[in-house]
Amino acid sequence: MALIKSISGIRGTIGGAPDEGLNPLAIVKFTSAYATFIRQTVTNKSNRIVVGRDARLSGLMVKNIVTGTLVGMGFDVVDIDLATTPTTELAVVNEDASGGIIITASHNPKHWNALKLLNDKGEFLNAQEGAVVLQLAETESFVYSNVECLGKIITDSRYRERHIESVLALKLVDVEAIRNANFRVAIDCVNSVGGIVIPDLLYALGVKELFKLHCNPHGNFSHNPEPIPENLTEISGLMQQAKADVGFVVDPDVDRLAIICENGEMFGEEYTLVSVADYVLSANGGGNTVSNLSSTRALRDVTVAYGGQHYAAAVGEVNVVTKMKACNAAIGGEGNGGVIYPDSHYGRDALVGIALFLSNLAHKKMKTSELKASYPQYYIAKKKVELSPQIDIDAILLRVKEHYGKYEITDIDGVKIDFPDKWVHLRKSNTEPIIRIYAEAHTQAEAEALGDEVVRMVNG
């Protein structure tokens, strides 16, 4: 059993003893602490908190505990039930709510769940705010409402449609061009909420024909839900059988987008943001971009080609958003397939990513594989080392910094070493008990070799 408290929320496995995992007692405690934080800090007059969830097996159980606890804390709950993370973020703003809770463990397997906590702007709490919530939970510094001041539950199932409407209304989403392209599209929605919303979005965009995998949102994921190549063999095979032009894969809460080429090859989750940024920057005549330290250099190359500047942020959506606001970025996100487009909202959104990507593909009049080949080519190797109590992370980071001291080093989030033609970044994960080691170079073999070199140093 595991329980991880981080900038990404409260995440844990379901079940176990009272002091283990994301059990009902833990859910009540952290929800109560969050409600107390909102009551103490939010200045708007709303007494509403939005709650949405993905379709994983424990979702309904967790939602019932969360909503009941919020009612007990005196808040009115807007229950949008099965909804994507970006849908929930948009609902907070549309409801003028004081905050929101998204019940999802994102790409984690089905035995995990999590509480992702939003502020009144529909954005994730930052590290300092999250620390306050954790402290309130640790000290149990919360008081429940008396019977006259209990909140109520308001059910609203319209937000999926509203989200789609907001995507269609974006200036750079060219529905006419997409419709005229007569795209044939395959999708894999890993048996979660994407299976409800992604087909509706694609039909609304005018996609000619749709081939669906795992769109029944029963939560018993048909494969590992992280949208990375080793988990996407089924849709890769479908692409050529269906003669599809492009394939889209989302994670259970639909904030990450992976793309499959017409020949069944991976477009590369790193290149989701690169392609969408290319389209946005070309339409806007340039602009600044932001991605996290573990994302491909290709975004920097594309940004500079349009006369803009690329900025790097620490890993974590809230860090990327903070940097995007500071440098007035036209677009940003993360190399895991997360697209953040401020003209919509400051949150990773696979629906926005799909609409902008199809607009780009329609305008370029290329095959998906040709579009991928048009960008600077880099290859990333992703490694991980399981954490144990014996591992001294600070000592490891110091050893790596000293070993590569003659190169450019960034240590705002773990340690990243930039070589002239490649880079490597190692950091403790926010979502799993592991150290992540990402390396990028101009060939896969060189990236793998660099990643393996650092793994050996970690295992030391």
Description of the molecule:
The chain has helices at residues 24-41, 59-72, 85-94, 127-139, 159-168, 175-181, 194-204, 233-242, 269-284, 298-305, 317-326, 350-364, 368-373, 393-403, 444-459; strands at 3-6, 9-13, 48-53, 76-82, 99-103, 112-118, 153-155, 184-188, 209-213, 246-250, 257-260, 289-292, 310-313, 331-334, 338-340, 379-386, 408-410, 415-418, 423-428, 434-441. The model has no long low-confidence stretch (mean pLDDT 95). Strand 17 (408-410) and strand 18 form a beta hairpin. Helix 9 (269-284) runs parallel beside helix 10. Helix content is 38%, strand content 22%. The protein is an alpha/beta fold and 460 residues long. The strands form four sheets. It has a seven-stranded mixed β-sheet, with helices on both faces. Strands 16-20-19-18-17 form a five-stranded antiparallel β-sheet, with helices on one face. The chain contains 15 helices and 20 strands. The radius of gyration is 22 Å and the shape is globular.
